[in-house]
Design goal:
17% helix; alpha+beta; 5-stranded mixed sheet; disordered N terminus; 7-stranded mixed sheet
Protein backbone atom coordinates (compact mmCIF):
# COMPACT_ATOMS: atom_id res chain seq x y z
CA UNK A 1 0.00 0.00 0.00
CA UNK A 2 1.54 3.40 -0.91
CA UNK A 3 2.30 5.90 1.86
CA UNK A 4 -0.57 8.35 2.17
CA UNK A 5 0.38 11.65 3.77
CA UNK A 6 -2.43 13.82 5.13
CA UNK A 7 -1.16 17.41 5.22
CA UNK A 8 -1.50 19.61 8.26
CA UNK A 9 -1.07 23.36 8.57
CA UNK A 10 2.70 23.15 8.96
CA UNK A 11 3.26 20.28 6.52
CA UNK A 12 4.67 21.88 3.36
CA UNK A 13 7.93 21.45 1.40
CA UNK A 14 11.09 22.73 3.05
CA UNK A 15 14.02 24.49 1.36
CA UNK A 16 17.27 26.10 2.29
CA UNK A 17 19.33 29.07 3.39
CA UNK A 18 19.17 32.74 4.38
CA UNK A 19 21.99 35.14 5.43
CA UNK A 20 22.34 37.51 8.40
CA UNK A 21 20.66 40.79 9.43
CA UNK A 22 20.02 42.95 12.45
CA UNK A 23 16.95 42.63 14.56
CA UNK A 24 15.58 44.25 17.67
CA UNK A 25 15.84 43.00 21.26
CA UNK A 26 14.11 43.90 24.47
CA UNK A 27 16.79 46.34 25.65
CA UNK A 28 14.32 49.21 25.54
CA UNK A 29 11.93 47.26 27.75
CA UNK A 30 14.64 46.58 30.30
CA UNK A 31 15.74 50.21 30.22
CA UNK A 32 12.19 51.36 30.92
CA UNK A 33 12.13 49.14 33.98
CA UNK A 34 15.29 50.82 35.23
CA UNK A 35 17.45 47.71 35.33
CA UNK A 36 20.72 46.79 33.65
CA UNK A 37 20.32 44.09 31.05
CA UNK A 38 17.54 41.96 31.67
CA UNK A 39 19.68 9.13 18.01
CA UNK A 40 23.32 7.80 18.03
CA UNK A 41 25.19 10.04 20.35
CA UNK A 42 28.92 10.24 20.99
CA UNK A 43 29.19 10.91 24.72
CA UNK A 44 32.84 11.89 24.38
CA UNK A 45 31.78 15.02 22.55
CA UNK A 46 29.59 16.12 25.45
CA UNK A 47 32.30 16.63 28.06
CA UNK A 48 33.21 20.23 29.04
CA UNK A 49 36.68 19.81 27.51
CA UNK A 50 35.47 18.34 24.23
CA UNK A 51 36.08 21.49 22.20
CA UNK A 52 39.07 23.75 21.82
CA UNK A 53 38.27 27.44 22.33
CA UNK A 54 36.88 28.70 19.00
CA UNK A 55 38.17 31.82 17.26
CA UNK A 56 34.84 32.58 15.58
CA UNK A 57 31.32 31.21 15.43
CA UNK A 58 32.02 29.21 12.27
CA UNK A 59 34.78 27.39 14.15
CA UNK A 60 32.47 26.81 17.09
CA UNK A 61 29.82 25.32 14.83
CA UNK A 62 32.32 23.15 12.97
CA UNK A 63 33.18 21.42 16.25
CA UNK A 64 29.52 20.50 16.69
CA UNK A 65 28.96 19.56 13.05
CA UNK A 66 31.81 17.03 13.22
CA UNK A 67 29.81 15.02 15.78
CA UNK A 68 26.27 14.67 14.42
CA UNK A 69 23.16 13.34 16.12
CA UNK A 70 22.02 10.43 13.97
CA UNK A 71 18.23 10.87 13.92
CA UNK A 72 15.53 10.68 11.29
CA UNK A 73 13.74 13.75 9.95
CA UNK A 74 10.00 13.62 10.63
CA UNK A 75 8.40 14.55 7.28
CA UNK A 76 5.20 15.69 8.99
CA UNK A 77 7.02 18.79 10.22
CA UNK A 78 8.32 20.93 7.38
CA UNK A 79 7.93 24.62 6.51
CA UNK A 80 7.32 26.40 3.21
CA UNK A 81 9.88 29.15 3.86
CA UNK A 82 13.63 29.00 3.45
CA UNK A 83 15.50 27.45 6.33
CA UNK A 84 17.54 29.98 8.28
CA UNK A 85 21.28 29.70 7.77
CA UNK A 86 22.97 28.05 10.76
CA UNK A 87 25.43 30.89 11.33
CA UNK A 88 22.58 33.41 11.41
CA UNK A 89 20.66 31.30 13.93
CA UNK A 90 23.80 30.83 16.05
CA UNK A 91 24.63 34.52 16.27
CA UNK A 92 21.17 35.97 16.97
CA UNK A 93 19.99 34.65 20.30
CA UNK A 94 18.23 35.88 23.40
CA UNK A 95 19.71 34.51 26.61
CA UNK A 96 19.18 37.17 29.26
CA UNK A 97 21.17 35.33 31.92
CA UNK A 98 24.29 36.27 29.96
CA UNK A 99 23.45 39.48 28.08
CA UNK A 100 20.65 41.68 26.80
CA UNK A 101 22.44 41.72 23.44
CA UNK A 102 22.18 39.00 20.82
CA UNK A 103 25.11 38.85 18.44
CA UNK A 104 27.96 37.80 20.74
CA UNK A 105 26.25 35.35 23.06
CA UNK A 106 28.16 32.45 21.53
CA UNK A 107 31.37 34.13 22.69
CA UNK A 108 30.08 35.09 26.14
CA UNK A 109 29.01 31.49 26.74
CA UNK A 110 32.26 29.75 25.78
CA UNK A 111 32.82 28.56 29.36
CA UNK A 112 29.22 27.51 30.03
CA UNK A 113 29.46 23.80 30.84
CA UNK A 114 26.49 21.71 29.77
CA UNK A 115 27.78 18.34 31.01
CA UNK A 116 27.23 16.83 33.51
CA UNK A 117 23.60 18.00 33.62
CA UNK A 118 20.57 16.63 35.40
CA UNK A 119 16.87 17.22 34.83
CA UNK A 120 14.53 16.84 37.80
CA UNK A 121 10.81 16.16 37.26
CA UNK A 122 8.52 16.22 40.29
CA UNK A 123 5.54 17.82 41.96
CA UNK A 124 2.11 16.33 41.31
CA UNK A 125 3.36 13.12 39.72
CA UNK A 126 3.25 9.46 40.72
CA UNK A 127 6.84 8.74 39.69
CA UNK A 128 9.19 11.69 40.29
CA UNK A 129 12.56 11.34 38.58
CA UNK A 130 15.98 12.94 38.37
CA UNK A 131 17.72 11.97 35.14
CA UNK A 132 21.12 12.63 33.67
CA UNK A 133 20.49 14.35 30.36
CA UNK A 134 22.49 11.77 28.41
CA UNK A 135 20.57 8.91 29.99
CA UNK A 136 17.40 10.76 29.04
CA UNK A 137 18.52 11.01 25.41
CA UNK A 138 19.10 7.27 25.28
CA UNK A 139 15.56 6.62 26.49
CA UNK A 140 13.63 9.12 24.38
CA UNK A 141 12.44 8.86 20.74
CA UNK A 142 14.63 11.56 19.15
CA UNK A 143 13.67 13.00 15.77
CA UNK A 144 14.24 16.11 13.68
CA UNK A 145 11.40 18.58 13.11
CA UNK A 146 11.54 21.77 11.06
CA UNK A 147 9.51 24.46 12.84
CA UNK A 148 8.73 28.10 12.41
CA UNK A 149 10.02 30.13 15.35
CA UNK A 150 8.44 33.53 16.08
CA UNK A 151 9.81 36.04 18.60
CA UNK A 152 7.57 38.54 20.39
CA UNK A 153 9.92 41.20 18.96
CA UNK A 154 8.49 40.33 15.48
CA UNK A 155 11.53 38.56 14.00
CA UNK A 156 11.19 34.97 12.84
CA UNK A 157 13.28 32.05 11.62
CA UNK A 158 12.89 28.48 10.37
CA UNK A 159 14.96 25.90 12.24
CA UNK A 160 15.51 22.10 12.19
CA UNK A 161 15.28 21.10 15.86
CA UNK A 162 16.17 17.66 17.24
CA UNK A 163 14.24 16.46 20.25
CA UNK A 164 11.35 14.43 21.59
CA UNK A 165 7.77 15.23 22.57
CA UNK A 166 7.47 16.52 26.14
CA UNK A 167 4.46 14.22 26.35
CA UNK A 168 6.80 11.19 26.26
CA UNK A 169 8.59 12.37 29.41
CA UNK A 170 5.39 13.33 31.23
CA UNK A 171 3.96 9.89 30.56
CA UNK A 172 6.98 8.42 32.36
CA UNK A 173 6.39 10.45 35.53
CA UNK A 174 2.59 9.99 35.41
CA UNK A 175 0.90 13.28 36.41
CA UNK A 176 -1.73 13.01 39.13
CA UNK A 177 -5.32 14.04 38.52
CA UNK A 178 -4.63 17.33 40.36
CA UNK A 179 -1.87 18.45 37.96
CA UNK A 180 -2.90 21.39 35.77
CA UNK A 181 0.39 23.13 34.86
CA UNK A 182 4.02 22.32 34.14
CA UNK A 183 6.45 24.83 35.65
CA UNK A 184 9.95 24.86 34.12
CA UNK A 185 13.10 26.31 35.66
CA UNK A 186 16.39 27.39 34.05
CA UNK A 187 19.73 26.93 35.83
CA UNK A 188 20.74 29.58 38.39
CA UNK A 189 24.46 30.22 38.76
CA UNK A 190 25.57 33.86 38.87
CA UNK A 191 29.22 32.78 38.81
CA UNK A 192 28.80 31.86 35.13
CA UNK A 193 25.74 33.93 34.17
CA UNK A 194 26.59 37.53 35.11
CA UNK A 195 23.13 39.05 34.65
CA UNK A 196 21.79 36.75 37.35
CA UNK A 197 23.62 39.00 39.82
CA UNK A 198 20.99 41.65 39.16
CA UNK A 199 18.60 41.22 42.08
CA UNK A 200 15.98 43.47 40.47
CA UNK A 201 15.20 40.75 37.93
CA UNK A 202 13.14 37.74 39.04
CA UNK A 203 15.79 35.05 38.68
CA UNK A 204 15.84 32.17 38.09
CA UNK A 205 14.06 32.21 34.72
CA UNK A 206 10.74 30.36 35.01
CA UNK A 207 8.28 29.44 32.30
CA UNK A 208 5.18 27.30 32.24
CA UNK A 209 2.47 25.64 30.21
CA UNK A 210 -0.90 24.19 30.97
CA UNK A 211 -0.75 20.42 31.16
CA UNK A 212 -2.84 20.23 27.98
CA UNK A 213 -0.32 22.43 26.14
CA UNK A 214 2.58 20.38 27.48
CA UNK A 215 0.95 17.15 26.24
CA UNK A 216 0.31 18.52 22.74
CA UNK A 217 2.07 16.69 19.88
CA UNK A 218 3.97 19.85 18.83
CA UNK A 219 5.57 20.58 22.23
CA UNK A 220 9.19 19.49 21.91
CA UNK A 221 11.97 19.04 24.44
CA UNK A 222 14.94 19.91 22.26
CA UNK A 223 18.52 18.64 22.51
CA UNK A 224 19.87 19.39 19.03
CA UNK A 225 19.75 21.71 16.04
CA UNK A 226 21.03 21.48 12.44
CA UNK A 227 21.91 17.82 12.91
CA UNK A 228 24.00 18.08 16.09
CA UNK A 229 23.67 18.83 19.80
CA UNK A 230 22.67 22.33 20.87
CA UNK A 231 25.46 24.90 21.14
CA UNK A 232 25.23 26.79 24.46
CA UNK A 233 23.63 29.92 22.98
CA UNK A 234 20.66 27.83 21.79
CA UNK A 235 19.84 26.63 25.31
CA UNK A 236 22.05 23.57 25.76
CA UNK A 237 21.80 20.89 26.84
CA UNK A 238 17.98 20.78 26.84
CA UNK A 239 15.35 23.40 26.07
CA UNK A 240 11.68 23.68 25.25
CA UNK A 241 10.23 24.55 21.85
CA UNK A 242 6.55 25.55 21.66
CA UNK A 243 6.20 26.71 18.05
CA UNK A 244 2.76 28.31 18.28
CA UNK A 245 3.84 30.64 21.10
CA UNK A 246 6.23 33.59 21.18
CA UNK A 247 9.84 32.54 21.62
CA UNK A 248 10.32 33.62 25.24
CA UNK A 249 7.99 30.75 26.23
CA UNK A 250 10.57 28.26 24.88
CA UNK A 251 12.72 28.18 28.01
CA UNK A 252 16.42 27.27 27.72
CA UNK A 253 18.84 25.14 29.77
CA UNK A 254 16.16 23.48 31.89
CA UNK A 255 17.09 21.93 35.24
CA UNK A 256 13.70 21.25 36.77
CA UNK A 257 10.06 20.64 35.85
CA UNK A 258 7.36 20.72 38.50
CA UNK A 259 3.78 19.69 37.90
CA UNK A 260 1.44 21.87 39.91
CA UNK A 261 -2.18 22.91 40.26
CA UNK A 262 -1.30 26.62 40.23
CA UNK A 263 -0.29 28.81 37.30
CA UNK A 264 3.49 29.41 37.52
CA UNK A 265 4.84 32.92 38.07
CA UNK A 266 6.91 33.24 34.90
CA UNK A 267 9.84 35.59 34.27
CA UNK A 268 8.50 38.02 31.68
CA UNK A 269 4.93 37.90 32.93
CA UNK A 270 6.21 38.84 36.40
CA UNK A 271 8.17 41.79 34.98
CA UNK A 272 5.36 43.13 32.79
CA UNK A 273 2.09 41.19 32.73
CA UNK A 274 0.46 43.68 30.35
CA UNK A 275 3.16 43.09 27.74
CA UNK A 276 3.98 39.40 28.23
CA UNK A 277 0.98 37.25 29.06
CA UNK A 278 1.18 33.74 30.43
CA UNK A 279 -0.49 32.30 27.33
CA UNK A 280 1.43 34.35 24.71
CA UNK A 281 0.13 32.58 21.62
CA UNK A 282 1.22 34.12 18.32
CA UNK A 283 -1.72 36.27 17.21
CA UNK A 284 -1.64 38.97 14.52
CA UNK A 285 -4.79 40.64 15.89
CA UNK A 286 -3.42 41.19 19.40
CA UNK A 287 -0.67 43.85 19.31
CA UNK A 288 2.10 44.15 21.85
CA UNK A 289 1.46 47.41 23.75
CA UNK A 290 4.44 48.99 21.95
CA UNK A 291 4.33 47.45 18.46
CA UNK A 292 2.09 45.60 16.04
CA UNK A 293 2.17 41.83 15.69
CA UNK A 294 0.43 41.89 12.30
CA UNK A 295 3.62 41.08 10.37
CA UNK A 296 6.97 39.39 11.00
CA UNK A 297 10.37 39.52 9.33
CA UNK A 298 12.89 36.76 8.70
CA UNK A 299 16.35 37.11 10.16
CA UNK A 300 18.91 36.84 7.41
CA UNK A 301 16.75 38.21 4.60
CA UNK A 302 14.46 40.76 6.25
CA UNK A 303 11.62 39.33 4.17
CA UNK A 304 8.34 40.43 5.72
CA UNK A 305 5.31 38.16 5.95
CA UNK A 306 1.85 38.40 7.48
CA UNK A 307 1.82 36.84 10.93
CA UNK A 308 -0.23 33.66 11.11
CA UNK A 309 -2.52 32.89 14.02
CA UNK A 310 -0.80 30.34 16.26
CA UNK A 311 2.22 30.80 13.97
CA UNK A 312 0.50 28.56 11.41
CA UNK A 313 -0.08 25.66 13.80
CA UNK A 314 -3.76 26.25 14.47
CA UNK A 315 -4.83 22.84 13.17
CA UNK A 316 -3.00 21.21 16.08
CA UNK A 317 -3.61 23.69 18.89
CA UNK A 318 -6.70 25.87 18.34
CA UNK A 319 -8.87 23.38 20.23
CA UNK A 320 -6.83 24.09 23.39
CA UNK A 321 -8.25 27.61 23.53
CA UNK A 322 -11.92 27.00 22.75
Amino acid sequence: MPYLKIPKGWDIPESHVTPESDYMNRRSFIKELGVVGAGALSLSLLSPDAFARPKNVEEQLAAFQDKPLAVEHNPQFTVERQMTDEVVAATYNNFYEFSSGKKNLWKLMEDFETRPWQLEIGGLVHKPMTLDVDDLLRQMPLEERVYRFRCVETWAMVVPWIGFPLKALLEKVQPTSDAKYVEMLTFWNADVAPQQRNSRLPWPYVEGLTLAEAMNELTLLTVGIYGHILPPQHGAPIRLIVPWKYGFKSIKSIVRMTLTNKQPRTFWHTLSPREYGFESNVNPTVPHPRWSQATEWMIGTRERHPTQLYNGYGDAVAHLYE
